[in-house]
Amino acid sequence: MNRGKLGEDIALEFLSKKGYRLIERNYHSRFGEIDIIMKNDRYIIFVEVKLRKNSKYGTPAEFVTVKKQQKIIITAEDWIINNKTELQPRFDVIEIYMPENKAVSINHIENAFNA
What we know:
This protein is of the alpha+beta class and 115 residues long. The chain is built from two helices and five strands. The chain has helices spanning 3-17, 66-82, and strands at residues 21-29, 32-39, 43-52, 88-97, 105-113. It is globular and about 40 Å long.
């Protein structure tokens, strides 16, 4: 299993335990990709998952650059156009630290950036 899919599996399990419900995984548009789309009672949540061995070169969330955020936002807008929802959109980042192929730490950053 590749690390990207593994990170998404870990994030999905973590968010499901928090009561979030999966809408879609690996949503692609011509603008980009969203790792996980979930919802709760108030929000449709577009989740970017970042898995790293450590924070030697920065936190995982720091790798969600402004350019990456813009791609996620445009892709989310595309999803919303094609999937009508009354829920408020929110952009979250899940940081996973996994030094020895075992998740040591998961950090859920709600509303990590705004559209």
